[in-house]
Amino acid sequence: MSLRLLENAPLAGLNTFGVAARARRLVMLEDERDLPQALAALADGPRLVLGAGSNVLFAGDFDGTILLMRTRGRQVLGDGHGAPFNRIAVAAGESWDETVTWTLEEGLAGLENLAMIPGTCGAAAIQNIGAYGVELCDRFDSLRAVDMDSGEAREFGLADCRFDYRDSLFKQAGGRHWLILTLRLRVGAGQRPVLQYGELASALTAEGGPPGEPVAARIAAAVRAIRSRKLPDPTVLGNAGSFFKNPVVSAEAARELRVREPGMPGHPVTAAGEDRVKLSAGWLIERCGWKGFRQGDAGVHQAHALVLVNHGQASGREIAALAERIRQSVHERYGVWLEAEPSIIGGS
Ligand SMILES: Cc1cc2nc3c(=O)[nH]c(=O)nc-3n(C[C@H](O)[C@H](O)[C@H](O)COP(=O)(O)OP(=O)(O)OC[C@H]3O[C@@H](n4cnc5c(N)ncnc54)[C@H](O)[C@@H]3O)c2cc1C
């Protein structure tokens, strides 16, 4: 039995915003054999699963039990019955970025565009992480989860997960009772390099490492170089990456907005069989004048209007209040409601 339990647990070191908050109780799961005890500890009152805390904002204390996922284990499963890929299985508590590095060391391509995304492998499926033209669902094989209410374990295939842009069944109210335990992915020779992002294609030539290296490793190096240059390091400046999803509007709404804002970026997408347009949340926020804004220690990053930051001692409540002001102002000016990407926990 290695289940660790802490009462009145401090959370500042467990979220990348670095905001101070407390949980009534925290249970750390390192070994899946302790799952029954962990589920029993969660049975009483509000519960929350926490990975690396890079996609949550604690807007207040959490009056319930947090399950901290720290299970470990990675395995190459084989070639998927003659399919042109290998399958890997990773425990939910494994670091996503270390897993990307491990696949590249194993000579298995496919995850390189998703290098350097903070967080755990279990959480990667929650919001279908994506970057530089690849989403988790593009490499997804299956996952194993347990129902935290009944204790029943279940396998999920691609269609079961209802992956969408920064979304999945597990992020929805009706799917939050599933605790993801193991993630299986398809990697290997069958996964072609994805270089549709011009910035990545040109960076590959300029900074993607020695030409002799496999292309996947060079793409990962280029992605890391771009991300290090563009995104604030949460260990230096608290943040959760993009705070808002890019809003998807009807083609007609996008046309009307472009009459007022001819330079507005947006690209066509199909959602639920309809032609729609995905707008840039960062652009809308910047146009509303928020880039570089700071009130106390809560702010908007100097270089990225989409990234809210904690300059030091901001509370989660202050960051959530700033996010709400930004949402209101974008709605007033453009009639578009932005949706937060991180889970906002606690507060009123
Ligand atoms: C600097 C920075 C850059 C980022 N860049 C990107 C990016 O490019 N693309 C992108 O998609 N995201 C990005 N993110 C967001 C974040 O890294 C991802 O969403 C990541 O997958 C979150 O992992 P986590 O372990 O930190 O999850 P947490 O923040 O701990 O949890 C996130 C949510 O998942 C739930 N959860 C966690 N683990 C489990 C589990 N095992 N079972 C069930 N529920 C679970 C939690 O309850 C919570 O609702 C970025 C964040 C930062 C700080």
Descriptive overview:
The protein has 348 residues and is an alpha+beta fold. The protein folds into 3 domains: 66 residues, Uridine Diphospho-n-acetylenolpyruvylglucosamine Reductase, domain 2; 157 residues, Uridine Diphospho-n-acetylenolpyruvylglucosamine Reductase, domain 3, CATH 3.30.465.10; 108 residues, Alpha-Beta Complex (Uridine Diphospho-n-acetylenolpyruvylglucosamine Reductase, domain 1). The protein has 9 helices and 20 strands. Strands 6-7-12-10-11 form a 5-stranded antiparallel sheet. The structure holds flavin-adenine dinucleotide. The site of flavin-adenine dinucleotide has 33 residues, from strand 3, helix 3, strand 8, strand 12 and strand 13.
What topology does this entry show?
Blueprint: E1 4-10, E2 22-29, H1 35-42, E3 47-50, E4 56-58, E5 62-69, E6 74-78, E7 86-91, H2 96-105, H3 121-126, E8 130-131, E9 134-135, E10 140-147, E11 153-156, H4 158-161, E12 178-187, H5 198-207, H6 215-230, E13 238-242, E14 248-250, H7 251-260, E15 266-271, E16 274-279, H8 281-287, E17 294-295, E18 298-300, E19 307-310, H9 316-334, E20 343-345
Parallel strand pairs: 2-5, 3-5, 4-20
Antiparallel strand pairs: 1-2, 6-7, 7-12, 8-9, 10-11, 10-12, 13-19, 14-16, 15-16, 17-18, 18-19
Helix pairs in contact: 5-6
The protein binds flavin-adenine dinucleotide.
Flavin-adenine dinucleotide binds at residues 16, 48-56, 69, 92, 117-120, 122-124, 126-127, 129-131, 170, 179-180, 231, 234, 239-241, 343.
